[in-house]
From TrEMBL:
Belongs to the adenylate kinase family. UMP-CMP kinase subfamily. Its cofactor is Mg(2+). The lineage of its organism: Eukaryota, Fungi, Dikarya, Basidiomycota, Agaricomycotina. The keyword Cytoplasm applies. Residues 214-224 are annotated as: LID. It is found in: Cytoplasm; Nucleus. Residues 110-140 are annotated as: NMPbind. This is Uridylate kinase. It comes from the Eukaryota.
Length: 287
């Protein structure tokens, strides 16, 4: 009897061992199993510097827009004159642009207006992307803004406008509130048209704050309040001032004191425009 029991035990033990091994093997991950990514794990060689990361860089519409942005300038800066108009919130850019258009026949383009119009245009390829960015509080991808400006310039040149500066494929543009960031500045100069100069309306934050608060009484804009205005000033100093410094280094900035009366401001702005067209513009002038 003991011999029979030993044989039965020997026969059963290998199976138990085999089951144990099988159980242990099944607990180990397969060599070909898919590893679930840890969202907190980032490889050092895959990490981009903060300045290069864009919240919407993976959006399919952004990638499509990037394909459409050419690698070399679309417009010849010997024929097409582009003046960027920059200044802090409340510096008076819009008021002065309207006056410059009347005297010099500029086509006035506002990046903000173009984005708002594109957002609501039926059949827009970028409309949903712009809406998503506004909803999520992120910046509209640089490629989209540059492409909209390029399209607007092309449309204006096709209109066969009358007046000085619009014959034989020539054109003159005031681009208001752009570029606000360095990537916008570099991409526009590289792929659309090199700017002739930057008209920089400069004044103190006290003056701009007073103007914006006064405007807020009738504008209905949610951001025309003291708290929002201070945040806008901070953003302006952090993102737009480096653009001004970039163009200063290139000798392309004309500074106009916009803290004085509107007509006095315009005298300085008009003098800069006149010199750009006559070849008398001197680098980094103060009007």
């Amino acid at each position: 009897m003991p011999a029979i029991l030993d044989k039965i035990s020997q026969a059963l033990n290998p199976k138990k061992k085999e089951k144990k091994e099988t159980k242990e093997e099944s607990a180990q991950p397969s060599a070909t199993a898919v590893k679930v990514a840890d969202p907190t794990e980032t490889k050092l060689h895959e990490t981009k510097p903060a300045a290069e990361i864009h919240p919407d860089e993976a959006h399919p519409d952004t990638q499509e827009a990037a394909k459409d942005v050419p690698e070399s300038p679309v417009f010849d800066n010997n024929k097409v004159t582009v003046i960027f108009v920059l200044g802090g919130p409340g510096a008076g850019k819009g008021t002065q642009c309207a006056k410059l258009v009347d005297e010099f026949g500029f086509c006035h383009l506002s990046a903000g207006d173009l984005l708002r119009a594109e957002q609501n245009r039926e059949g827009s390829e970028f409309g949903q992307l712009i809406k998503d960015c506004i909803k999520e509080g992120t910046i509209v991808p640089m490629e989209v803004t540059v492409k909209l400006l390029q399209n607007a310039m092309s449309d204006a040149l096709k209109e066969s406008r009358e007046g000085e500066g619009w014959q034989d494929g020539k054109g003159r543009f005031l681009i208001d509130g752009f570029p606000r960031k360095m990537d916008q500045a570099l991409k526009f100069d590289e792929s659309v048209c090199e700017c002739a100069c930057v008209l920089f309306f400069d004044t103190t934050e006290e003056v701009m704050l007073e103007r914006l608060l006064e405007r807020g009484k009738t504008s209905g804009r949610e951001d025309d309040n003291a708290e929002s205005i201070k945040k806008r000033f901070k953003t302006y100093h952090e993102t737009t001032m480096p653009v001004i410094d970039h163009y200063k280094a290139m000798g392309k900035v004309a500074i106009v004191d916009s803290g004085v009366a509107v007509d006095e401001v315009y005298k300085g702005a008009a003098d800069v425009a006149r010199k750009v067209f006559t070849g008398g513009f001197k680098p980094n002038t103060t009007a």
